[in-house]
Design a protein that fits this description.
- Helices cover 55% and strands 4% of the residues.
- It has 92 residues and is mainly alpha-helical.
- It folds into two domains: 1-30; 32-92.
- It has a two-stranded antiparallel ribbon.
- Helix 1 packs antiparallel against helix 2.
- The chain is elongated.
- Bound molecules: zinc ion.
- The site of zinc ion has 8 residues, from loops.
């Protein structure tokens, strides 16, 4: 399937990174998430899971101790926040 230049709507070949008609850089419609974005998502998922464990550890004996869960959650919260800031910076 042929892509079209988003600026001038001329057809782009698969291997063309710059539009020959208007010279603008090719922009992908679905840009892949950057490493930072992917990392931030993983941290966020871990943070949510850890939070659930923290709550569960209050009621269920089969989970790690509440203190451990709480400490992990707090660490992940800080990591999550700095990861999000990193993603924001990359967006410009
Ligand atoms: Zn173009």
């Amino acid at each position: 399937m042929m892509d079209k230049c988003l600026d001038c709507n001329s057809t782009l070949k698969d291997d063309e990174l710059v539009c020959y008609t208007c010279g603008s850089a090719r922009r992908q419609k679905n840009p892949k998430p950057t490493m930072a974005q992917r990392g931030a998502l993983i941290v966020k998922v871990l943070f949510v899971i850890s939070g659930l464990f923290t709550v569960a550890s209050l009621f269920l004996p089969a989970t790690p101790s509440f203190t451990k869960c709480l400490a992990t959650t707090i660490i992940l919260m800080f990591v999550n926040r700095s990861a999000e800031q990193m993603v924001e910076k990359q967006k410009g």
